[in-house]
Specification:
- This protein is mainly alpha-helical and about 50 residues long.
- It has one domain.
- About 90% of the residues lie in helices and about 0% in strands.
C-alpha cells in the first residue's frame, strides 16, 4: 500500500517537471540558451580580428 502511494507521488512529480520544462517554459528561453556557445565564439573571433 505504501509503495503504491510513493510510486504515484513520484510519477506525479515526474509529470509536473516534464510539463514545467516543455510546456510552461518559453521556447524563446531555450533558443537563446542554445545560441550562447555560438555567440561566445563570434565574440572571441571579433576580439582576435580587432587585436590583429
Amino acid at each position: 500500500m505504501t509503495s503504491g502511494i510513493i510510486t504515484a507521488i513520484a510519477m506525479l512529480c515526474f509529470v509536473a517537471i516534464v510539463v514545467w520544462v516543455f510546456i510552461i517554459k518559453r521556447k524563446e528561453d531555450f533558443d537563446e540558451q542554445a545560441n550562447l556557445p555560438l555567440d561566445e565564439d563570434d565574440r572571441e573571433k571579433g576580439k582576435e580580428e580587432k587585436s590583429s
